[in-house]
Specification:
The chain is an alpha+beta fold. It has three domains: 132 residues, no CATH class; 96 residues, 2-Layer Sandwich (Phosphorylase Kinase, domain 1), CATH 3.30.200.120; 172 residues, Phosphatidylinositol 3-kinase Catalytic Subunit, Chain A, Domain 5 (Orthogonal Bundle), CATH 1.10.1070. 32% of the residues lie in helices and 18% in strands. The chain has 13 helices and 14 strands. Strand 6 and strand 7 form a beta hairpin.
């Protein structure tokens, strides 16, 4: 067995200072053959200082010195998996560091830099945090960066070597598509370009869908489109940082105590991928009912537009220091499936039901902050009307007339089915 450990640092929500919040330890068989075991332990200094911020109120829910065993990801603590790369970052790290397809999640955590991590946690090897490797690097011209991301997605040599070198240091943000972060004043934006394998203009599609959701009065992350000759990209405003302050976040996967992607080999399938279960978890950590209604609205919206990529890692909570509570984050990664009209979502609409049907949609209404089924139906009907109305501006958001027509037709068809 080989034992490895890292210290975990938190940027305090109240004064932006960095503190050591705990230590993560991993024991794994040599050669990565077999199951590993890991644990997280809050630092004595963190407890003695009287800090009360729980970095994970579900899986690390008590501030004590008892080690918390990691039940998922072959021994990697959930909240640390949240700040690790997903498939895009893993693909690049495999090439850069000669990692095998069977590399442990911990290896990806170690090799991805702290500058672009999701939320307010970073890692290091010393007991006390050092800010030298935390500050976000200044990115170059946006058009050059988009071009380089497209070159990387096609596995072509660097056209802008210095930009590629910087991009390779910022692989912590999740997702399956090439992306990078740029700063505009105090705001940070995730840049997601179209790539050669796209069958439709995904950048415009995501922007138009997010704008439509906002007009339908859902809390969507702010977006805008950058278009330059043949290069298009959607820029999505990050909700986990403003200026030098990073905000604590936790994924829906961590809240649901499930893995993403699902790992059926370790008896951890998608049975906990569920909107009602997520709503119950939100309520348990003190999220107000208005956010539960919002979650219900997003479930309806995903069904209407055909976004079946609504997996648990595409949901999150963010810590609000002013309110001193967790809140449902703005919606993100809401992109309709344009290849076929989905008949089900990735998350259950009600217990054991993934299918987009009336009885599935309203089967567990009581978990979403409503006082009756009728109230949930009234809300759903209004949201459907608002979405239909909002869809008339899709072309103004840059969507092609064919794509806009398809989405409008889908929304109207699904609305009729859900009212039946």
């Amino acid at each position: 067995m080989t034992t490895s450990s890292v210290y975990v640092y938190l940027q305090r929500p109240d004064n932006a200072e960095w503190v050591t919040v705990g230590r993560y330890t991993l024991d794994r068989p040599n050669g990565n053959q077999g199951l590993a075991s890991g644990s997280f332990k809050y630092a004595p200094s963190y407890l003695q200082a009287g800090h009360t911020w729980l970095i994970d109120p579900v899986n690390l829910a008590k501030l004590d010195e008892v080690p918390y065993p990691a039940a998922r990801y072959n021994g990697l603590t959930d909240v640390l998996r949240d700040i690790s790369p997903d498939s895009w970052g893993k693909f690049l790290l495999q090439k850069e560091h000669n990692l095998s397809d069977f590399a442990h999640e911990f290896d990806y955590l170690l090799h991805s830099g702290n500058t672009d991590r999701w939320g307010a946690l970073v890692i290091g090897s010393s007991r006390k945090p050092s800010t030298s490797n935390i500050a976000s690097p200044k990115m170059p011209k946006l058009t050059d960066m988009i071009e380089e991301l497209q070159m990387m997605s096609s596995q072509r040599p660097a056209k802008h070597p210095e930009i590629r070198k910087r991009l390779m240091k910022t692989l912590s943000s999740g997702g399956a598509r090439p992306k990078a972060t740029v700063q505009d004043g105090k705001n940070f934006w995730i840049v997601k370009p179209t790539i050669s394998s796209d069958t439709s203009n995904v950048a415009l599609l995501e922007h138009a869908c997010m704008q439509m959701g906002s007009r339908a009065k859902l809390n969507m992350a702010e977006t805008y489109v950058h278009q330059d000759d043949a290069r298009a990209a959607v820029l999505v405003k990050r909700f986990d940082r403003v200026g030098s302050q990073r905000h604590m976040v936790l994924s829906g996967a961590s809240l649901l105590q499930t893995e993403y992607p699902a790992n059926t080999g370790r008896n951890n399938d998608n049975s906990r991928w569920s909107y009602p279960l997520l709503a119950q978890s939100l309520r348990a950590i003190g999220v107000p009912d208005v956010d539960l209604v919002e979650l219900f609205g997003r479930m309806i919206f995903n069904a209407l537009v055909g976004n079946d990529d609504d997996h648990p890692r595409n949901h999150a909570v963010v810590w609000n220091q002013t309110e001193k509570k967790w809140r449902l984050s703005p919606a993100f990664d809401v992109v309709p499936n344009m290849l076929e009209t989905p008949t089900s979502l990735s998350m259950q609409l009600s217990q054991g039901r993934w299918d987009i049907l009336n009885e599935a949609l309203f089967g567990d209404w009581k978990y979403f902050g409503f006082s009756s089924m009728g109230q949930s139906q009234d809300y759903a009907n209004k949201l459907m009307v608002d979405t239909i109305s909002a869809s008339h501006s899709l072309e103004e958001d840059g969507l092609s007339s064919d794509d806009a027509y398809l989405i409008r037709l889908r929304i109207k068809t699904v609305s009729l089915k859900l009212k039946a």
